[in-house]
Design goal:
There is one protein chain. The chain is mainly β. The strands form ten sheets. A four-stranded antiparallel β-sheet has the order 4-5-6-7, with no helix packed on it. Strands 11-12-13-14 form a four-stranded antiparallel β-sheet, with no helix packed on it. It has a four-stranded antiparallel β-sheet with strand order 15-16-17-18, with no helix packed on it. The chain is globular and about 75 Å long.
């Protein structure tokens, strides 16, 4: 019930939120015997709120009349008093509860995760929601951002300049919804978007303000959590976190995608990545194993090896760009570096303890000298792996304003720029110290205290520009 006692909301198993308006004041505040029965009898039904893909498990009002609802489709929506969607927030799994506090919206999910969302952001544009994945062309001069938002679009950006510049948007076809996953062809002229119903959609350049799909293909069951593209541009790997089947899709002709084969896995997965030559696909599963598939013939993939990485944490893995180097992180809370020049017999080169929190993404810098680990602590840990047998800490990129970091990716041709999707933003870091100093001192004067704190947090100021 709303704080003024006049509004009632109920989540339903019919994939809607039902609303009623009571006459007069608070339901039990006046008239009759004070029980509110007369007011309830006069309740007027309002238009129901639709667009949900599963049960609506919980609803809550705040003092301003905003309504939050949590659904089994792993979404939380916030509506204004007129029933318009203010924002849509992602849940890590089935959303089981929502509550307003004085400063935050509190959301609960079935995996036990509780998250706080600042109330000041609830009326923001859809771009303030989760950027769960990024993708780029082979030369990293353009990229596509997967945005989980009410408008459900992916943004195509040019990353050649100092600040990413939007060049277009792709939007899902009728009666479909993006899942937040995306991939881009090596030449940057094709975008592949995963769908909430287990399919993929294809978009081709030129990208306008509302580019529509040129093709669609159903692939798996459940929500597509990722759909990485092989570097040769011929094969998509499509999978959900609820199905143990991984689909390999032929996109040699992007306008005519076709399922090559379905690969049964021992457990579902949330991430997979092709090697730079497209001949291997590493698949860290939600079980104890990381599977290496030989995809030299993508129509007939075979399991080359199974690595035991443990259960109990978000698994991840990433291939180097220019060498047979593989990094894995799993439930044993250990990051390992492997030589996979022979995929059937990986050789462990080194290992080290994983950073705190869940490791969501493992990736190499463009020159392969750095290993990038994004985590649930809101930090990016950077490891020097120029000598893979002797990995050394290189940097910890300061915590963002949000607790979860998703996919990290080199975002510039030179490799010094790192883009990371987060809750509410795409964070970009310049990893080249010389470039940082050059940019910071370009004005010819020392940095102010505010500038120093913004660019070099937790570091004592010194004469940087002399």
């Amino acid at each position: 019930m709303s704080p003024d006692g006049r509004g009632i909301a109920a989540g339903t198993t019919g994939r809607t939120v039902q609303l009623w308006r009571l006459p007069g004041g608070a339901a039990g505040g006046s008239g009759g015997d004070g029980s509110g029965i007369a007011a309830l009898a006069g309740a007027r039904a309002l238009p129901e709120l639709t667009g949900w893909d599963a049960y609506v498990n919980d609803v809550a009002f705040d003092d301003l009349g905003r309504l939050a609802a949590a659904g089994s489709d792993e979404r939380v929506r916030v509506y204004d008093p007129a029933g318009r969607v203010l924002t849509e927030l992602p849940a890590s799994q089935v959303a089981t509860g929502v509550r307003f506090t004085d400063s935050d919206l509190v959301t609960y999910s079935v995996d036990g995760l509780v998250r706080l969302w600042p109330l000041g952001r609830l009326g923001a544009a859809p771009e303030s929601n989760s950027i769960s994945q990024t993708a780029s062309s082979q030369d990293r001069t353009s990229g596509v951002l997967g945005v989980t938002a009410a408008e459900m679009h992916h943004t195509v950006v040019d990353t050649t300049g100092p600040v990413p510049r939007e060049t277009g948007r792709v939007i899902p076809g009728d009666d479909t919804r993006f899942s937040g996953s995306g991939a881009m062809s090596p030449d940057g002229r094709v975008v592949y978007a995963g769908l909430a119903d287990g399919g993929v959609q294809v978009f081709t350049a030129p990208y306008g303000p509302a580019t529509r799909p040129v093709a669609s293909l159903p692939v798996t069951s459940g929500v597509v959590v990722a759909n990485p593209l092989s570097p040769d541009g011929r094969t998509l790997a499509v999978y959900s976190d609820t199905s143990p089947d991984l689909g390999l899709v032929d996109v040699t002709d992007p306008t005519r995608p076709a399922l090559r084969v379905t690969v049964p896995l021992p457990d579902p997965c949330v991430v997979a990545e092709f090697s730079s030559d497209s001949r291997q696909l590493v698949v860290p599963t939600l079980g104890p194993e990381t599977v290496i598939l030989d995809t030299a013939d993508p129509d007939r993939p075979v399991v080359a090896h199974r690595l035991t990485t443990g259960i109990g944490a978000s698994p991840s893995a990433g291939h180097a760009h220019h060498s047979p180097l593989l990094a894995t992180s799993g439930g044993d809370k250990t990051v390992r570096l492997w030589d996979v020049s022979d995929a059937s017999a990986p050789a462990e080169l080194a290992s080290f303890a994983a950073p705190p929190g869940e490791i969501y993404w493992t990736a190499f810098s463009a020159d392969d000298d750095l290993l990038l680990l994004t985590s649930s602590t809101g930090q990016v840990t950077v490891i020097d792996v120029a000598d893979p047998s002797d990995p050394r800490p290189w940097a910890v990129l300061g915590s963002t304003t949000d607790p979860l970091l998703y996919q990290g990716r080199s975002a510039s041709p030179a490799g010094g720029l790192l883009a990371v999707g987060a809750e509410g933003a795409m964070w970009m870091w310049q990893l080249d110290p010389d470039r940082v100093v050059s940019d910071a001192c370009a004005g010819g004067v020392q940095l102010t205290g505010e500038e120093w704190e913004r660019h070099f947090p937790d570091t004592e100021p010194f004469d940087l520009c002399s």
